[in-house]
Specification:
By secondary structure, the chain is mainly α. The chain is built from seven helices and no strands.
Length: about 210
């Protein structure tokens, strides 16, 4: 009797799903881009500073500064040996702050400095193999006075490469890997800053 008086349950329709609440995003403000003079001063002030973070404007303005000055000195270095020595000294002196700001730029994107260490090892392998391979032939450069001597030096270097295929292979592999790594580092360097604080410090761009 109870089964006869029991009313059937009404059909259940799919209830419309409520849209998920939007996730909270902290409001951040980007500080103005660093101007060229401030960028160069900052990089020179942080000459040996491989810690912390550096935003894109700081890195690229300093790279442009070094490139312009090196190009001008190299041009006038072809006219004057003294300027040539100055150009070499400038390039060697700027190597340290360039590596330092590159490390800080990688830190700003959340990446470690081991990328720079790997690049340095590749270049060391390349130049070490190059010096070992043909370094003995450079002593004859002072005797080069005519095109025939130049061709003779070229033949000696080619013979050195053939006699030491292992060193030649190491030199080529190191140079190719270094070029690929430089392209990767350029891609990293053009990326925007992490807007949050990471293990390398607070963001120099977003506040």
């Amino acid at each position: 009797m109870e089964q006869q008086n029991q009313q059937p349950h009404p059909p259940v329709f799919n209830q419309p799903q409520q849209p998920a609440a939007p996730q909270y995003q902290p409001r951040v403000t980007a500080s103005p881009m660093m101007d060229p003079v401030t960028a160069v001063k900052t990089c020179l002030k942080k000459f040996f500073d491989f810690k912390g973070r550096a935003r894109r404007s700081e890195f690229w303005w300093f790279v442009l500064f070094v490139l312009i000055v090196s190009s001008v000195l190299s041009f006038f270095g072809m006219l004057s040996p003294i300027v040539g020595y100055v150009s070499m000294a400038f390039g060697l002196a700027m190597l340290i702050p360039e590596l330092a700001v590159l490390c800080r730029r990688l830190h700003d994107t959340g990446r470690g400095s081991w990328w720079v260490v790997l690049l340095a090892l590749l270049w060391a392998g390349y130049y070490g193999s190059f010096a070992t391979l043909i370094g003995s032939n450079f002593s004859n450069l002072e005797n080069v006075t005519n095109p025939e001597d130049v061709m003779g030096m070229a033949r000696e270097m080619a013979d050195s490469v053939q006699s030491s295929p292992g060193l030649a292979t190491t030199m080529v592999l190191c140079s190719l890997c270094a070029i690929i790594l430089i392209i990767i580092l350029i891609i990293f360097a053009v990326k925007d800053s992490d807007w949050t604080e990471n293990k390398y410090g607070p963001s120099p761009k977003y506040k």
